[in-house]
Amino acid sequence: xxxxxxxxxxxxxxxxxxxxxxxxxxxxxxxxxxxxxxxxxxxxxxxxxxxxxxxxxxxxxxxxxxxxxxxxxxxxxxxxxxxxxxxxxxxxxxxxxxxxxxxxxxxxxxxxxxxxxxxxxxxxxxxxxxxxxxxxxxxxxxxxxxxxxxxxxxxxxxxxxxxxxxxxxxxxxxxxxxx
Length: 179
Ligand code: ATP
Ligand code: MG
Fold this sequence. Notes:
Blueprint: E1 2-9, H1 15-23, E2 29-30, E3 37-46, H2 48-60, E4 66-76, E5 83-88, H3 92-107, E6 120-125, H4 133-142, E7 147-153, E8 155-162, E9 169-177
Antiparallel strand pairs: 1-3, 1-8, 2-6, 4-5, 4-7, 5-6, 8-9
Helix pairs in contact: 2-3
The chain binds adenosine-5'-triphosphate (ATP) and magnesium ion (MG).
């Protein structure tokens, strides 16, 4: 079994902006710059032959390159935030790509959750008890005008996720061109 997900790696011109943004937010478990990405589909623990099928399906997938623009800072978890993220400006091409990737993964035999896709780049995670919510929320208000890009997105990537005591390590397995 391989723990896998499909994502867009952050373009090098956007990464320093995201890193500075994360620096400005007091989060107990900040995502390191090299781990920042935009998840298209979480495949989870996947049998190797199924992942091989998914890889072939991603190779056959056709979708155009597009521009990615990040906008704003938000959190998931309502009054008990557990994840802080940079938002994504409305992007029909990204939404269409996410649908194609999810459909291809399902046809290959992967189980992909069907909850609504909210494109985001995770900046940090925390347990509500551990976090100083007031400080974090004040910093999020200051960061609300954050924007980065547009940057050209020419590919998407299949990653293996290695969960370790020091946090996850994401290993790119294959990338697929958009054109
Ligand atoms: P950790 O689990 O140690 O906090 P992580 O969440 O970054 O680390 P994974 O759980 O392997 O590592 O997740 C890889 C990517 O898939 C991350 O972007 C994560 O947010 C996303 N993800 C994980 N689980 C789900 C899920 N059930 N539904 C949608 N996306 C998910
Ligand atoms: Mg996780």
